[in-house]
Backbone:
């Protein structure tokens, strides 16, 4: 059975966007797996992980890291060629959505939740997270979140608008079928929702809200 090393916070809250992408895919494919909770600093101190981040999986003794690589591994190993979501045609579109989500959507979410995350972290991670992110942002996460939530430009709403516009034209992000693109974007939105109240989707993004609630029902079981 697949073991997924899953970032965990206070009260075992699972909040990593990348881990959610993989869990949503495994749920969608009805593939059995177990999760092994691990916090940031446990990963840092472990020779098993080395440079590997979370999620990392072990599948029949094979270690795979990076959500996109893991998704590709799952599709190739468990899904027959005619039903795979990763083929030569679709892989580049999925790669595009993955890059867009990591660079634009995740950044827009981070702007609104960077400080709120601290309150859901495992106690052992607070110092590490605050220090490492202060270096990354060039300021304390509180100042980073305050600055970004107060500026007139709301990048999260811009991303929602972009996604909503796509969903006004088609049922899913890449057309009329569910693909790994849904898991990528839903994983990011789940992260925001788990750690803060600052990434609620506005009512005007009706198609996106419906897409999200229907998929959340499907992919959480
Ligand atoms: N591109 C990677 C990103 C993975 C990643 O950044 N994971 C975070 C958790 S959400 C992590 O392990 N960070 C380690 C750290 O900040 O020390 C993927 O898609 O899996």
Residues:
């Amino acid at each position: 059975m697949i073991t997924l090393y899953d970032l965990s916070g206070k009260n075992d809250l699972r909040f990593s966007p990348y881990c959610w992408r993989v869990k949503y895919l495994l749920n969608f494919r009805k593939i059995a797996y177990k999760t092994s909770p691990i916090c940031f600093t446990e990963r840092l101190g472990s020779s098993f992980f080395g440079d590997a981040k979370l999620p990392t999986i072990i599948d029949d003794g094979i270690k795979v890291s990076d959500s996109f690589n893991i998704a590709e591994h799952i599709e190739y190993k468990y899904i027959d060629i005619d039903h795979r979501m990763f083929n030569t045609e679709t892989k580049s579109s999925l790669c595009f959505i993955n890059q867009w989500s990591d660079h634009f959507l995740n950044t827009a979410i981070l702007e609104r939740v960077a400080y709120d995350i601290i309150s859901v972290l495992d106690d052992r991670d607070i110092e590490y997270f605050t220090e490492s992110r202060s270096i990354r942002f060039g300021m304390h996460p509180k100042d980073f979140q305050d600055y970004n939530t107060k500026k007139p430009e709301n990048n999260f709403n811009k991303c929602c608008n972009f996604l909503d516009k796509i969903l006004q034209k088609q049922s899913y992000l890449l057309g009329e079928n569910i693909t790994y693109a849904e898991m990528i974007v839903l994983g990011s939105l789940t992260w925001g929702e788990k750690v803060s109240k600052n990434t609620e989707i506005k009512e005007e993004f009706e198609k996106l809200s419906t897409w999200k609630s229907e998929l959340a029902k499907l992919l959480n079981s």
User: Anything to note?
Assistant: The chain has a mean pLDDT of 97. Strands lie at 2-7, 33-38, 56-59, 62-65. Residues 2-78 form a domain with the Glutaredoxin fold (CATH 3.40.30.10).
